[in-house]
Amino acid sequence: MSEPGTPSLDQLNVFLAVVEAGSFAAAGRRLGRATSAISYAIVNLELQLGMPLFDRERTRKPTLTPAGEAALSDARRVALSVDSLRAKMKGLSDGLEGEIGLAVDVMLPTERLVDVLHAFESKFPTVALRLHVEALGAIVHLVHSGVANIGISGPLLVNVSGIERINVGGVELVPVAAPSHPLAISKANLPGEARNHTQLVLTDRSSLTEGQDFGVIGMKSWRLADLGTKHALLLAGIGWGNMPEPMVSADLAAGRLKRLVIPEWTRGEYGLHAVFRTHTPPGPAGAWLIERFVSQIS
Questions:
Q1: C-alpha count within 13 angstroms, C-beta hemisphere, residue 231
Q2: Beta bridge partners of residue 131, listed in sequence order
Q3: Residues 110-156: tens digit of each pLDDT
Q4: Is the pTM above the cut of 0.90?
Q5: Which residues of the chain have pLDDT under 50?
Q6: Which pLDDT does position 252 carry in this prediction?
Q7: Could you tell me if 168 and 235 are in contact, meaning their C-beta atoms sit under 8 angstroms apart?
């Protein structure tokens, strides 16, 4: 038995038109061709594949055979892939990026990120996205090294040449602990009391800000690389720490965590900035991403 041939894209499009329109005549009207041309294309496709795709004998309306049913999903997948390829090439010819690397600070509220990515997927369906979630100086490091095109970074205490920054608001940080923690039990903590208890601190994995501390009060600290782990330890009553308010608002409302009153705590806003390399500014999709983040604070 001979191997099936390779159908053309046009043959597959005719096949799909017949299935979707319900008849050879309707497919012809949709494609602007004579019914005889549609019939000829289907016959050639069946000869290529070596199997009948439509049952023309038992019904006046073309009905898919088992082979036709099996071929349908693959034909649709091929057609969608080609359409996607053509749209991507059209976008590239118009200056649209093929892919964007986006690095975001772990402190960025999830609701803001979801809003941006949901709208981005709808606005730029042909642009692939690589998402990195990091902390502190690691965001600027990814952008500076070219791993990411755009970053949403927290505050940096150092200047990095070649990096442009655009304010995109911030998030409130609140000191919290489990209700059983001594700092939560006390109604009024004296100055210096927080230093006597273990503070959970998000560590910076970037060499750009290595050795710098952000909001560290406690004399004893446990440094963690993951904000989710820090959250879990706080709920378990291990240490105290500063957390983005949106991440712990439900815990505060339910009493699983308590907001601490600490005299030394003065930093409430964790500023966020969109960052990119000045010598390789964002293209249309990247610029739209930044504008979307900016629009969230207006």
A1: 15
A2: 102
A3: 999 999 999 999 999 888 999 999 887 889 889 988 899 999 998 86
A4: no
A5: none
A6: 95
A7: no
> Rg (Cα) of the chain, in Å, rounded?
29
Exposure letters 8-34 (e unless 16+ CB within 10 A, then b): eeebbbbbbbbbebeebeebbeebebe
Q: At what angle do helices 245-254 and 110-123 cross, to 10 degrees?
A: 130
* Amino acid, single-letter form, for residue 258: K
Q: Tell me the sheet residues that pair with 274.
A: 152, 166
> So what's the pLDDT on residue 94?
60
The C-alpha atoms of residue 268 and residue 12 are separated, in whole angstroms, by 60
**Encoding tokens for residue 217?**
């009060």
Question: Are the CB atoms for 221 and 200 separated by under 8 Å?
Answer: yes
Burial class (CB in 10 A: 0-12, 13-18, 19+), 187: exposed
Say what the alpha-carbon torsion angle 245, 251, 252, 255 is, to the nearest 10 degrees.
-170
| Location of structure tokens 């100086």 | 137
